[in-house]
Design a protein that fits this description.
The protein is mainly alpha-helical. Helix content is about 55%, strand content about 5%.
Length: about 350
């Protein structure tokens, strides 16, 4: 019986390239061909001479521990995302979250050198899959934010939506305390790049019937639960939302971003609820024995969040329309609006002519 490899094609290729480039890179270092390292990883002073390193550096690891972590991330995360999105969409996502963070990190170190004259800005080696790992966590945050991952027989329970913030905090502390500044920079750039791509640019298939435009999908994800403030604990939602909204409004004014319509928001919220019905395959849970109840619990949490967001929008809309409703001569302000008066029940009820 032939051996069946249950790994999607692009994920399989990615794993092979990761292992091959990492072995080659470390062989070069071991042989002390120092000048040749720049052919695979980013060195700010020579990166423009070898431009392919902006892609290859994302799949180069310096030791066995980081290689195993990167391999596990690509194996489990890539399998799920490639099957959820298709190989073509997964490929676009990989290209975006590999290339852009590396280019931006290269720019950060050049600016560092230009401002403070530190030669480290020119000689630092930038490589590793940190940006990819951060991007996969953002993708899972979009697809299954309320899924609970249980570790050590249920001793540790973490919801998927908290992983990006935990990852950022861990890499930030490590960068400050242990000097792993490249991981710190790549983690932040990976989070921001992947969120921007998924929020505003990635084409989402239509999983709901909320849209009335006849289009089979929407661009971006305008759902409230995927707003940048929701990546953080509830206590800091307000300040982060204020800052992120100001940046978004500025980008809209500069015509860099296209504002979401009310239908976009409604459709995206429906999409989020539809994705929540599918749940997340059991990767760390014991044998998937609780998969059915886990999916039901996740769906209920998604519905509760959507209802909460809807209630907030309705409350805000009611507050804004209160002065208009107080004027009896103004009439209905929007198509399909109904004004109900308890006192009208005795005189005929409906005030519509």
């Amino acid at each position: 019986m032939p051996l069946r490899i249950n790994i999607p094609p692009l994920t399989r290729i990615l794993l092979v390239v990761l292992v091959a480039l990492s072995i080659l890179y470390n062989a070069i270092r071991y042989r002390q061909w120092i000048d040749s390292v720049a052919y695979l990883a980013i060195e700010p002073q020579s990166a423009l001479i070898y431009p392919w390193v902006f892609l290859s550096a994302a799949l180069v690891e310096q030791n066995i521990v980081t290689l195993l972590i990167a391999g596990a991330t690509i194996l489990y995360g890539g399998k799920y995302l490639e099957r959820a999105w298709s190989s073509a969409e997964f490929g676009k996502f990989l290209l975006t979250v590999s290339l852009i963070p590396n280019i931006l990190a290269w720019g950060v170190y050049l600016v560092l050198f230009a401002i403070i004259g530190d030669e480290k800005g020119l000689t630092t080696t930038i490589n590793g899959s940190i940006a990819l790992q951060a991007s996969f966590l953002v993708a899972f945050k979009q697809l299954v934010p309320e899924h609970t991952v249980t570790i050590a027989r249920g001793f540790i329970k973490i919801r998927v939506k908290h992983f990006p913030a935990i990852f950022l905090v861990a890499n930030t502390i490590s960068g400050v305390v242990f000097g792993t500044d490249t991981a710190l920079v790549l983690a932040w750039l990976g989070i921001l790049t992947s969120w921007t791509y998924l929020r505003f640019y990635k084409w989402q298939p239509d999983l709901s019937s909320a849209s009335t435009s006849g289009v089979s999908g929407i661009r971006g994800d305008a759902s409230e639960t995927f707003a940048f403030a929701y990546f953080w604990p509830d206590v800091v939602h307000g300040p982060i939302a204020a800052v992120s909204d100001s940046i978004y409004n500025a980008l809209v004014a500069l015509r860099i971003c296209t504002p979401f319509s009310a239908e976009d928001v409604e459709t995206s919220n429906e999409q989020a609820m539809a994705r929540g019905e599918g749940g997340l395959p059991s990767l760390l849970n014991q044998g998937g024995r609780r998969g059915g109840s886990g999916k039901r619990e996740e769906a209920e949490r998604r519905r509760a969040l959507a209802l909460k967001a809807l209630d907030q929008r309705l409350h805000a809309a009611t507050t804004n329309k209160a002065p208009t409703a107080a004027n009896p001569g103004s009439g209905p302000s929007m198509l399909g609006e109904t004004n109900y008066n308890p006192d009208d029940r005795e005189t005929g009820g409906d005030s519509t002519n």
